[in-house]
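Self-study notes.
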Amino acid sequence: GTFDPSLHEAIASVPWAGNPEGTILAEARKGYLLHGRLLRPAQVTVSAAPPGDGTGEDSTGSGRGPVRE
């Protein structure tokens, strides 16, 4: 499904190329509705844009390489 902030609480986001951004990947805690009223939002993990999506962040390096002194 797709993340809906009125029904879900995002507790984590994971870079994921296989699904569109905002796709629910896992449900950590079930949410509840009663007569159309939200009692508790579902806690979910959602997909995020994968690194290197054109924002330019990778052009300066990831900072994970070897440290040279």
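Second protein, same conventions, sequence then structure:
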Amino acid sequence: MSPSPPSVQLPPPPLPLPPRVQPRQILFLALRQLFSIKTGAKDLRCIMHLRHGANRLDRSNEFLEESSCIINDIASSNFANMAIEKITDAQHDQNIVYGNNG
């Protein structure tokens, strides 16, 4: 009788990643907590500052997302190379028109 091969135990599956918390969600939770308390004038000013901060964070996030899309587009395409070629062609044309051979 041949010996049976040793049993191999697979590692447990990785744990799922926790959901990503957006800065807006953190501010929303802070606002909700503030509204659950009896608010005075000082608290209302704080709430207004938090709302203003949330709006600024939203705009910053949108800008960063759009910027990363543009950067990815440039990196994934030959956009940069095409721009360099256009500049080189324009410089060459300018040299021909103005007689610069240098």
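Instructor comment on the second fold: Residues 23-97 form one domain.
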